[in-house]
């Protein structure tokens, strides 16, 4: 971190204004959101030509469309006549896009097919480009990224070492089984930062301490604002008193891996290694190919953060994707979008409990679930994320209070938050 961000110590305290000031939000819009690659959706959501999904990024709306040649293009979701949105649903299929206002029509590749009653237009009113405005679009492992900056450097370089670091996980072969979106009453960074640090777990998620070491984590920092935190799972927290016994949470993990906790001879410290052997051996409960994964990846939470606004909780048995999206006009609100993606699991096996997938959810991967728009009262995201959301709804008033005029204080376990702000400032400083 120190070598990539020598300015890091300037971010030990962060002005609270950054979480509500409209001028700062406008700078973020001009220099971060409209200049940076960010994940618009999943390639698996648009398998055939003409399939599209809509992506709302702040004040802009974007359509991402599968092309006849299997490539993917992205356009502003804006009719070139007077600006009506062409699509309003989250997903769809179209041979062409017909504007519902005056029926101007666009082909799948964005080119203008029809200006209705063209003879009634003075040609001077039709000067310039009548096709949809295209946006830079690229993919990595099934994630579709867009960049509103036509001059942006390629996605591959932007992602730095993340693709290599995460190479073992076949995200592009995973299928989305759950898609939840919530409007939160806090700035997008307030929301995201709760998922950039494991520091809060010891008090917010006390139930995980018997089975998660949320203190001694591995932190890796990359160029362009990206990072990775690896949190050991299957090991009691150093804050948890009993470091030896197979507590009920560890017993559950062992069982899940096909090991009988009653006859297990090791201590709590041996659980992770036992699970690694079980998954690599004949007790492969989930029926997955684990051969590409390291030991740590077989148990631990691999939590990469993609600047500016996406995190993954990557596990071989499934991955949770989170995106934190700025509100179109209000810096004290944001949209929190969570996807659960699963590989093909052994017939009849449900995903691990921490994925928060309800029993009635179809996990076959054959049905693309509709996006659920839920609320902070009933987020439908499972126990752990529910606890996080309870913090988030009590943050914005505080960061806007006079009592925070000295700023927000950050410790070593919160280095990724320092990095996020340092990277935002680097973007803002760029011409
Ligand atoms: S605004 Fe689209 S056709 Fe008029
Ligand atoms: Fe949390």
Automatic annotation (TrEMBL):
InterPro entries: Rieske_2Fe-2S (IPR017941), Rieske_2Fe-2S_sf (IPR036922), Ring_hydroxy_dOase_asu_C_dom (IPR015879), Rng_hydr_dOase-A (IPR001663). The keyword tRNA processing does not apply. Residues 37-146 form the Rieske domain. PROSITE patterns: RIESKE (PS51296). CDD domains: RHO_alpha_C_MupW-like (cd08882), Rieske_RO_Alpha_N (cd03469). GO terms for molecular function: 2 iron, 2 sulfur cluster binding; iron ion binding; oxidoreductase activity. It holds the Pfam family Ring_hydroxyl_A. Keywords: 2Fe-2S, Iron, Iron-sulfur, Metal-binding, Oxidoreductase. SUPFAM superfamilies: Bet v1-like, ISP domain. Its cofactor is Fe cation. This is Rieske domain-containing protein. It comes from Pseudomonas kilonensis.
């Amino acid at each position: 971190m120190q070598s990539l961000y020598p300015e890091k110590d300037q971010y030990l305290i962060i002005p609270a204004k950054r979480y509500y000031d409209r001028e700062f939000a406008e700078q973020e819009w001009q220099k971060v959101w409209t200049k940076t690659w960010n994940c618009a959706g999943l390639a698996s959501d648009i398998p055939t030509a003409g399939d599209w999904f809509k992506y709302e990024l702040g004040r802009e709306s974007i359509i991402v469309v599968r092309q006849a040649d299997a490539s993917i293009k992205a356009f502003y979701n804006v009719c070139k006549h007077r600006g009506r949105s062409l699509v309003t649903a989250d997903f769809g299929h179209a041979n062409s896009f017909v504007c519902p206002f005056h029926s101007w029509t666009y082909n799948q590749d964005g080119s203008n097919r029809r200006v209705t009653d063209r003879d009634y237009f003075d040609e001077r009113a039709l000067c310039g480009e009548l096709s949809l405005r295209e946006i830079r679009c690229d993919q990595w492992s099934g994630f579709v990224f867009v960049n509103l900056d036509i001059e942006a450097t390629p996605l591959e370089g932007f992602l730095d070492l993340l693709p290599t670091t995460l190479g073992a996980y076949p995200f592009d072969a995973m299928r989305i089984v759950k898609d939840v979106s919530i409007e939160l009453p806090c700035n997008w960074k307030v929301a995201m930062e709760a998922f950039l640090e494991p520091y809060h777990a010891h008090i917010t998620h006390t139930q995980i301490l018997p089975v998660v070491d949320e203190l001694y984590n591995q932190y890796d920092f990359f160029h362009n604002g990206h990072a990775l935190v690896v949190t050991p799972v299957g090991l009691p927290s150093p804050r948890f008193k009993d470091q030896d016994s197979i507590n009920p949470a560890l017993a559950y993990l062992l069982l899940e891996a096909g090991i009988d906790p009653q006859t297990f001879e090791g201590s709590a410290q041996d659980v992770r290694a036992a699970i690694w052997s079980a998954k690599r051996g004949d007790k492969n409960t989930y029926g997955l190919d684990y051969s590409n994964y390291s030991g740590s990846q077989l148990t631990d939470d691999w939590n990469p953060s993609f600047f500016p606004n996406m995190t993954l909780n990557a596990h071989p048995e499934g991955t949770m994707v989170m995106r934190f999206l700025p509100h179109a006009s209000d810096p004290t609100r944001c949209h929190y979008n969570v996807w659960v993606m699963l590989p093909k699991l052994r017939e009849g096996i449900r995903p691990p409990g921490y994925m928060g997938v309800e029993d009635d959810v179809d996990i076959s991967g054959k049905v693309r679930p509709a996006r659920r728009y839920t609320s902070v009262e009933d987020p439908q995201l499972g126990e752990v994320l529910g606890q996080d959301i309870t913090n988030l709804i009590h943050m914005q008033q505080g960061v806007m209070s006079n009592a925070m005029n000295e700023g927000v204080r950050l410790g070593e376990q919160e280095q990724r938050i320092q990095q996020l702000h340092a990277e935002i400032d680097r973007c803002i400083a760029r011409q």
